[in-house]
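[#protein-structures] MJ: dropping Gliding motility-associated C-terminal domain-containing protein here for a structure pass
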Amino acid sequence: MKRSLFIVTILVFSFYALQAQITSPGANATDVTQYPVFPETDDIFIFCSNDSSAEVGALTATTALSGTKNWLWEKYDETAGAFDLQYQETTDAASSQISALADGCYRITITQGATTEVDRAWVFNNWMYAGGEVAVSDCEHFVMNGEMKSAVLTYYDLSSNAPLFVNKDVQVEWLENGDRIASVINLTVYDPPAENTNYTLRVYDKFDCDAQATVLYESIVAKASFTANPMSGEAPLEVTFTNNSENATAGYYEWFFYRDLDAIKLDAEGTENPVDSIDFVAYDDAPVYTYENSGTYMVRLVSKHLSDTLTCADTAYMEDYIVVDTSFIAVPNVFTPNGDGVNDEFVVQFWSMQSIEISIFNRWGKRVHYWKSGDVRGFDDAYIETVWDGRIMGGRYASPGVYYYDVVGHGRDGEKRKKHGFVHLFRNKD
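AK: finished. structure tokens for Gliding motility-associated C-terminal domain-containing protein:
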């Protein structure tokens, strides 16, 4: 009978011992011990911090016992291999809290008469540090050296006192505009940006604790970029170049205007020596250039950034060639100068012409219209002067009938152009 009573007493004690519980609502993460000898497991509460001296751990013990009871908090001393008093109180509350805790194992013992409840938990102030600087910077690349430190989370087997370590799986990453660009501590960036750029070194672990450091790269490079408008048309073709270069020093631009592509190829066919492909070089920030002759042309821009120690240059080419059209002449075979606003003028169309001469004769060989220019600056600029309005040399109306035209000239592609034939003049009235 005494033996049975003893067994019941042990069972009751075990039942109550299970009721004490340590929690930590403010913890950032949790883990569980893996003691090799001690037969139980304890919770590990992780508190993230960026201050190596901060003690932010906090624990709360709860019990189902009602009435007055004694709360005894102890902290494990790994040197002695025993628990030392940390805090004690007697209260009828259902919970007890301790805070501002250093790393270590804490044990709560709740006593009420013959009933005792016990629980343990480990607390770690998991601090991290990140730092970095630009160590090398030149025209081709720059190097950012990172620095990281992290708390080592050491706990102890409560039987053997052997040290054990929490696996944090610490990793690093470099971020640019929130996007990961590398996972190394020291980062080399090739093709540096042409603007001052912030990079972030982030150190983090599996508990989502992290530390970040911002490193400012101060750009010493330029990015050459430009557009040309228009990209095609008749000669002479005036092209405006818009300089979109980034971080370049004003006044330090070089524009290389290439010769006609076909001319370069033709020169290259007759020699094994290098062929000079550059027509001329301009140093304007944003030039306007007139292509006088037909052809296919490339342009290259070199933009430079001058710093205290280096001059960094970048080169940009056009994605497409500028195409200056070949010459041609087109002539209509009929027109009706009757004042209705439709087809009232005899218009000789010409494109990329250097010179042109237009003559119109009646059936008896008398010239009734004439225009000539040795420096044609484009059809749009000249056609108003060249048109025949159906009047004899600008005077009285010409009679309806058949007239003969003769158009000759030289194109800006070096070709001689000519057109001749008949045109019919129809008119409702003289």
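MJ: nice. Confidence is low (pLDDT under 50) at residues 1-18.
AK: one more thing. The two ends are 146 Å apart (CA to CA).
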